[in-house]
Design brief:
Blueprint lengths: L1 H35 L8 E14 L2 E13 L4 E9 L2 H14 L2 E2 L11 E5 L2 E7 L6 E2 L2 H10 L4 E5 L5 H13 L4 H8 L3 H5 L1
Parallel strand pairs: 7-8
Antiparallel strand pairs: 1-2, 2-3, 3-4, 5-6, 6-8
Helix pairs in contact: 3-4
Length: 199
């Protein structure tokens, strides 16, 4: 009986080992399959323009929260600005990113610069944007620089002429970029062709 029990025990152990082997191999194959899948890389980049601590006086004391101004862009002519408010900084930034992606604009470009000069306005902020020659780079500061970099503009001159509040400057820059027109659009509005337009 002892020999039979031992034999049965070894058979059961072998069967169990095979089951375990199958499980481990299936796990390995699943693991490899998961590793072989190409990871999705997002084209969108985020830049935090400003994070402010906001205190609201309510019944029973003060309520503390954070406001984040975030710019989002893909470096290929699409950019947006959003505002997020939450009790924590991370939550405010995440809400700001979602808000920015809802308000994306397309920026028309001629090479690495903008087609023409324009002034963007928001509140008491005014932002002057001027096209620049190749190799100039981005001559801008603060919120304007962050937005232009995310939009993929390589050569431009910019100057803040009014209030320098980061949110208003950011929205003023977006306003200027939104109102840019291409040569084709200008020619169509004038009722002439591109040759007449450029001559």
């Amino acid at each position: 009986m002892d020999k039979e029990d031992k034999a049965l025990g070894t058979d059961e152990a072998a069967a169990e080992g095979q089951r375990k082997g199958r499980r481990t191999s299936s796990r390995d194959s699943r693991g490899r399959a998961a590793e072989d899948r190409p990871k999705e890389q997002s084209d969108w980049e985020e830049k935090i323009i400003q994070v402010r601590r906001v205190t609201k006086v309510v019944k029973g004391g003060k309520k503390l929260s954070f406001r984040a101004v975030v710019a989002v862009g893909n470096g290929k002519g699409q950019v947006g600005v959003g505002v997020g408010k939450a009790a924590e900084v991370i939550g405010a930034i995440q809400k700001g990113v979602v808000d920015a992606k809802k308000s994306l604009i397309n920026v028309p470009m001629v090479g690495a610069t903008i087609p023409h000069q324009i002034v963007g306005r928001q509140g008491s902020s005014r932002v002057l944007l001027k096209p620049a020659s190749k190799g100039t780079g981005i001559i801008a500061g603060g919120a304007t620089r962050a937005i232009l970099e995310l939009a993929g503009v390589g050569d431009i001159l910019a100057k803040s002429l009014g209030s320098r509040a980061p949110l208003n400057v950011a929205r003023g820059t977006i306003d200027g970029l939104r109102h840019l027109r291409t040569f084709e659009e200008a020619a169509r509005l004038r009722g002439i062709n591109m040759r007449q337009m450029l001559s």
